Amino acid sequence: MASLSHAAGLLYSSLETAERTDGSTFLRLTSSAPSWASDAIREAHCGELPNDSRYAVIKDSLALLQNGSYVDEDAAIDDLMHFSMALLPTYTSDLLNWFAAHTNRLSRCDDAISEGRVSDSTVYDILSEGFRTDCEDMMAVLISSLEDERQSIFNPDTDCRLILSDAYGIYIPQMYVSDITEADCEALKVDWADVQTCQAGPDHEHYWDAWMAICDSAEWNELGDAWHLVQNGDLFAVRADAELPEDWFC
Fold first, then answer.
1. 102 exposed, middle or buried (CB, 10 Å; 0-12, 13-18, 19+)?
2. Which H or E element spans position 241?
């Protein structure tokens, strides 16, 4: 399965910059973004309607997670304070613009004070800790979303293995089933008649129909994970619950 950093990288790469009619730019999800991406982005808005400033900090957050080599949620959560410090705007004007973009964010300053995060009562300290409080909560939500999804994200290093190269061409079906016996069919969830047809070779009139039926139904378990067949030129065994990206078939 994919690591949390792998999932973050996938979501990060699904964001693109677009231009409005007035010439201003904004971030949005690409048309090829994974099916779960919009839910993850919406949840990371933490109750706000979609807005540019939140999208920007989400993208920066994903960059930090992508580059951190985090395996799972626990490892990333341990670094929340580091993340919020890294995201804190360098310039006071940018910090003020963050709160000006959504005035409800000022309540996070009250949260920071009540949580004892503000050691000095300067306006800058209060605003800084309010920003960091908001970012840590947002990133906790984002990390949780990535953790929920990473187990179904296709990781070519762990979720597939090559069975037969496309160099074998039309003989791939025959070669794959060559050692399958009738006794094997129940465990593999395939029909013995289809196996026999493919064993007869590509000259059999139902060879490709039988192979399609085998690819559609074949499934087996290894160490608690279900696997199935996917032919993408080459023939692969692929973890059954992994969501294959569209470009994997190009």
1. middle
2. none
Q: What is the pLDDT of residue 152?
A: 77
Task: Give CA–CA dist 234/250, Å, rounded.
Answer: 12
Which tokens in the block code for residue 134?
């908001």
Other Cβ atoms within 10 Å of 238 Cβ, number: 18
Distances (CA, A) of 148 to 1, 37, 141: 12, 12, 11
Last residue of a domain, one of 118, 150, 182: 150
165 contacts 231 by C-beta, under 8 angstroms: no
Alpha helices in 37-159, H assignment, sequence order? 37-44, 52-67, 73-77, 80-87, 92-101, 107-114, 123-150
SS3 call for 3: coil
Considering the domain architecture, whether residues 13 and 135 belong to the same structural domain is answered as yes
- Same domain for 146 and 165, yes or no, is no
| Domain membership of residue 190 as a residue range | 160-249
pLDDT at residue 247, as a whole number: 66
% of the chain surpassing 70 pLDDT = 98
Q: Where does residue 156 fall: left (phi above 0), alpha (psi -120 to 50 degrees), or beta otherwise?
A: alpha
pLDDT at 250 over 60: no
Q: Is 155 inside a domain boundary?
A: no
Mean pLDDT of 190-200: 97
